[in-house]
Design a protein that fits this description.
Blueprint: E1 3-7, H1 11-22, E2 26-31, E3 54-57, H2 63-73, H3 77-84, E4 86-87, E5 92-95, H4 97-109, E6 114-118, E7 129-131, H5 139-149, E8 154-160, E9 164-166, E10 176-178, E11 188-193, H6 195-207, H7 228-232, E12 260-266, E13 273-276, H8 285-292, E14 303-305, E15 309-315, H9 317-320, E16 333-335, H10 345-363, H11 376-384, H12 412-434
Parallel strand pairs: 1-2, 1-7, 2-6, 7-16
Antiparallel strand pairs: 3-5, 4-5, 8-15, 9-13, 9-14, 10-11, 11-12, 12-13
């Protein structure tokens, strides 16, 4: 039996190991938890969601919704577990954080073709290897990668996680359940703020004391995970046009839209834990409690986890990787996950999916399956490996990297829905071959 070592049991590594094992490849999955954890990790489970519990938009008018549906149709472990542990989140796919990770872990541990070895990896193993050690790659392995590529080819940015609060500590007399524009079911707790309350909160937020993070500068933060205090410093109304946007969320007590609204999203299936949507932060813990308690509904909130910030490392992939996430200079080594420069949970899993499928095919002496750029899976791999990209930055899946339609369609949502329909026709035609 052919053998592959996969380093890292996050979303990408777990998906990659599963796809290899499903195709008859023996996999040794190396994971440093629970022997060693990073500041962002809390549990011993694989595929732990360190930031939000949302896998973002579910509809096919969203590029990430298309990516999820492609993976779902092609036998993704991550999507199977996400669907099975979903919690209500309006138009998004959100999961019970621990239930999801537990299900992924049990699936991996019970697969006969996967052997899990715990402990930190400090050297790049011999033989076929997929490095999916994530944006929190340990220093020892990061040093080996830096030596392999040269320091100039190893990049990084900073990422942050939002706080979690207990539901029973939220003052529901100052909050209400609703989804924006009544879309889907009323799954979010909305914490309204009047103008004076918001302005006092905003001022305190801009002046609050941040925890020291080595090497941190505001310009190094990925826009998709901008700390709320950094966003606040961009202007008085920035938050009101961002995570605190009140549009479509009228307060049933007044019948009008508040000046600003903080939303809380369910973090577990029981509904006992909620996260502060868009409140990624690297403020000191005491400052988080002080400032966030200025939100009326959270004056007495119990924090089950404060927000944290950590460095995310990624590669200059257009110079280093091909469309299958393999190292151009040494194809026995492949990469997967956020360290390739794909940004987001689903995108990370998609890179692991493609890396695993293609490596299994190569080891079985089969021709590669070239996902076309018209598919979300293919578009991500082609973007990451596009040598014409000169200023490489982490990228979420978006319709901008998928070729346009050959005809005009009125309305953005209608156009995106047609792009998705075109992709899924291609995916369905490829399905039997991909699953071999």
């Amino acid at each position: 039996m052919k053998h592959v070592t996969v380093i890292g049991a996050g979303l990408a590594g777990s998906e990659c190991a599963w796809q290899l094992a499903q195709r008859g490849i023996a996999v040794t999955l190396r994971e440093m938890k629970p022997e060693k954890k990073t500041p962002a990790h809390e549990t011993e489970y694989f595929a732990e969601l360190c930031c939000s519990n949302s896998l973002r938009g579910a509809g096919l008018e969203n590029a990430v919704g298309l990516l999820k549906e492609e993976m779902r149709r092609l036998g993704s472990l991550i999507l199977h577990c996400a669907d099975a542990t979903a919690v209500p989140a309006g138009g998004a796919l959100a999961v019970d954080r621990h239930g999801f990770a537990r299900m992924v872990t049990e699936s991996i541990l019970n697969h006969p073709n996967i052997t899990v070895e715990y402990g930190e990896v400090t050297e790049i193993p011999e033989g076929e290897v997929v490095i999916a050690s994530g944006p929190l790659t340990s220093d020892a392995l990061a040093d080996k990668l830096a030596a392999l590529f040269g320091e100039a080819d190893t990049l990084h940015f900073f990422d942050a996680a939002a706080p979690l609060v207990s539901f029973d500590s939220v003052d529901m007399s100052s909050a209400y359940f609703a989804s924006r524009y009544d879309k889907g079911t009323p799954d979010y707790i909305n914490c309204p703020m009047e103008k004076e309350e918001y302005l006092a909160f905003w001022q305190a937020l801009t002046e609050a004391e941040a925890a020291e993070v080595h090497g941190f500068e505001d310009k190094c933060v990925f826009e998709g995970c901008m700390p709320v205090e950094v966003m606040a410093r961009r202007g008085e109304d920035t938050l009101r046009f961002g995570p605190l946007k009140p549009r479509g969320l009228p307060d049933p007590k007044t019948g009008r839209e508040p000046y600003a609204v903080v939303q809380l999203r369910k973090d577990n299936a029981d509904g006992s834990i909620y996260n502060l949507v868009g409140f990624q932060t690297h403020l000191k813990w005491g400052e988080q409690k002080r400032v966030f308690s200025m939100i009326p509904a959270l004056r007495e909130a119990t924090y089950l986890r404060y927000g944290v910030m950590h460095r995310n490392t990624y590669l200059d992939s257009p110079r280093l990787l091909d469309r299958y996430y393999r190292l151009r200079s040494d194809t026995r080594i492949a990469f997967a996950g956020q360290m390739t420069g794909v940004e987001g949970y689903v995108e990370s899993a998609a890179s692991g999916f493609l890396a695993g499928v293609e490596l299994a095919r190569r080891l079985r002496e089969m021709e590669p399956v070239n996902f076309p750029q018209e598919t979300a899976i293919g578009a991500l791999g082609i973007y990451v490996s596009n040598e014409t990209v000169t200023q490489f930055q982490p990228m979420n899946i978006n319709f901008g990297i998928i070729p346009p339609l050959d005809h005009r369609v009125k309305g953005k949502r209608n156009k995106n829905a047609e792009l998705s329909a075109r992709s899924l026709v291609l995916i369905d035609a490829m399905k039997d071959e991909v699953l071999r």
